[in-house]
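STRUCTURE:
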């Protein structure tokens, strides 16, 4: 099962200037819990936004740059190549950014979407729209804003029909 995992605003905003638009510690914890032990597929800019590789995960970086190399990661040049390398993983995760999500959507069986309840007009990166008639929302858990979370949000799990 190929899973896409993302946090997006009400208008599918993901980020700006290769960074996030919010700080949601509980969402970070959930991301870590779900992706630990799995292959994570991402674009070069997403990988380079991390201070260091994320522990206990196999990093697959998709880039057009044939000369790109990164210690601690496997560099590939297509979504198909990334998925082939991760085929022994029962649940590889596509983790972004915007272009990688678009490339990965046709291959995706499940979407773990944190829907951030807010709009972010400065965003420059977006999660792709997905036709909800092709997907079934099987779980939704609300998280209210609090002293650690400036925005309320919902954990949504979608599966392809």
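SEQUENCE:
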């Amino acid at each position: 099962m190929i899973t896409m995992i993302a946090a997006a605003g009400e208008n599918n905003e993901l980020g700006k200037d290769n960074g996030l638009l919010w700080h949601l510690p509980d969402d970070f914890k959930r991301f870590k819990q779900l992706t630990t032990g799995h292959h994570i597929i991402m674009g070069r800019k997403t990988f380079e936004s991390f201070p260091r590789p994320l522990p206990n995960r196999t990093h697959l970086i998709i880039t057009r740059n044939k000369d790109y190399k990164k210690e601690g990661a496997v560099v590939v040049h297509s979504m198909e190549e990334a998925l082939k390398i991760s085929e022994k993983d029962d649940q590889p995760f596509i983790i972004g950014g915007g272009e990688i999500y678009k490339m990965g959507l046709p291959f995706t069986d499940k979407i773990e979407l944190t829907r951030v309840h807010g709009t972010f007009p400065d965003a420059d990166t977006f999660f792709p729209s997905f036709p909800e008639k092709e997907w079934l929302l099987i779980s939704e858990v609300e998280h209210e804003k609090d002293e650690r979370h400036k925005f309320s949000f919902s954990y949504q799990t979608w599966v392809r029909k």
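REMARK: The radius of gyration is 15 Å.
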